[in-house]
Amino acid sequence: MSGDFRESWQLTLVQPNQDAVKKQVAPPQTLDELYSSLGVDVGHGLLTMHPAHQQMYVVERPDQIHDGATLHVHVPKKRIFISVPPNIKHKAVVWYAGATASQIERSIAKAAGFEPAAPVELRDGEDVVVLSTSLPNDIHLEVSQAKRSLRSATPSTASIGVSARGKLLSSASCASAGSVSSKLRKERQSEKSPPRQRSPRSRSGTLPSVGGSTTPTAHQSAPEEHCVHILAGHTGSVLCLCAVGDILFTGSQDSIIMIWDLNNLQYIGNLPGHRGFVKCLHASYAKKVLCSGSQDRSIRVWSLETFSTVKTLLGHTGGVNTVLILEGTDVLVSGSEDRSIRVWDLATFEAVACLEQAHLGGIFALDRFSSLQVVSGARDRSLKVWDTSTWSVHRTLHPPHYDGVTSIAVAGKHGKFYSGSRDRSIKEWDVHSLTNTMHTLHVHGDWIQSLCMSPSDDVLFSGSKDGIVKVWDGELQCQDVLQGHKGPVTALAAVGNRLFSASHDRAVRVWRIEQYG
């Protein structure tokens, strides 16, 4: 009998403005284990009474508590800084746990000198920020008056039927979760474009554009037609996706990385730690690591076996927009708003190269299309190919886009890669000659923000600020238009016969894609 007995502690947990609750837990071995067993957020503090001095102190180690201890949860205040050009700069706005998004919005409006009921728009540089109670502490946002609040334009997680934790909505819910307006649908259905053909390069060295200036006629799926699930639970815009093995990771404006099981699309847990928006993710199954880049200027390396931080890499002086693990090596490459590309050794976690001013603007995208070449895209409209043996520029690709290059997708089987841009175009490039072989214009109604290849490399997907996902064949003919998101599409990932699309509407949609080949 004694061998079956498992020791447990009884602790009293006191939350702010709540009655004390008794908790029976196994004696914790780590502080994280204590927080988890008590159901307390890691960002909160635990206080207990010193047995000798009768004073409250912060619990920093599990051996500071004992069976029968009373623990008080300390919820820190939240603070952001706002600027309203030209007069208000870096003014603090503070709120406490329990404040609603409406109350925070009124506080921001008051601090900005607007009428208390005035709707506000928040921006992080060029990006609109979804107002939520989970905004990371001490971030700086620019504020302006809006015709309507961002909350009313972008639904909260509650408005699409989810809880604060991750939850799955079935395909029956996909239709009600939103689609583009009927006016936009009618406009897109009425658009015509001439047939596309490959055109040879002219003697002047320029390549004629393919596809004209309008969206090609294509099948337009209803929101529920191919959407089979909605993953929701983030309290801010979902900004990045990464799949590895049977796990999907999603990074968000709420500074959290959520973990999902790809077998049943259920929420597993989250990875807290970043102090700013999580803007990029990349994982290596072989190395059992996940790397995340954030607005907080840091890169975190996570173990896929323990789901804990192995190392935090510091060095960038701007937000980290893109990270890339080079398979077969111990190398991580990162691109930042500070215009630099940094190269890290994942064995020692040391920076082995820093390419200052790699571009003339913030770097948005990195990808690899050979063992010795990495391609980068940036706000300065350019694409550069780097020699990974020397980390020198091998080629700057021409012609450049007309606006920032936001995404790159490599179709290795066909020896080509694609670049998507804020100029609303997609360019096709030959991997071997590094020449532009096809160029489409105005394929979306707004910036292209993400590109992704199907697992077969035969189908290209594009996601845009217009809230639409488009499906393209090898000739850059649009095969389908996937509707349903209620905000800009920020990231795409194809796994097996499913496509995952992330959006400012705080959700990730799951689409069937086997019908596209």
Describe the fold and architecture.
With 517 residues, the protein is mainly β. Strands 2-1-5-3-4 form a five-stranded mixed beta sheet, covered by helices on one side. A five-stranded mixed beta sheet has the order 7-6-10-8-9, covered by helices on one side. A five-stranded antiparallel beta sheet has the order 11-13-40-39-38. β6 and β7 form a beta hairpin. The protein is globular, with a radius of gyration of 24 Å. The termini are far apart. Residues 1-5 and 149-216 have low confidence and may be disordered. This is Guanine nucleotide-binding protein subunit beta-like protein. Keywords: Repeat, WD repeat. Residues 205-220 have a biased composition (Polar residues). Residues 179-222 are annotated as: Disordered.
Any key phrases for this structure?
single chain; 517 residues; mainly beta; Ubiquitin-like (UB roll); Methylamine Dehydrogenase, Chain H; five-stranded mixed β-sheet; 40 strands; 7% helix; 43% strand; globular; disordered N terminus; WD40/YVTN_repeat-like_dom_sf; WD repeat; Guanine nucleotide-binding protein subunit beta-like protein; repeat; WD40_repeat_dom_sf
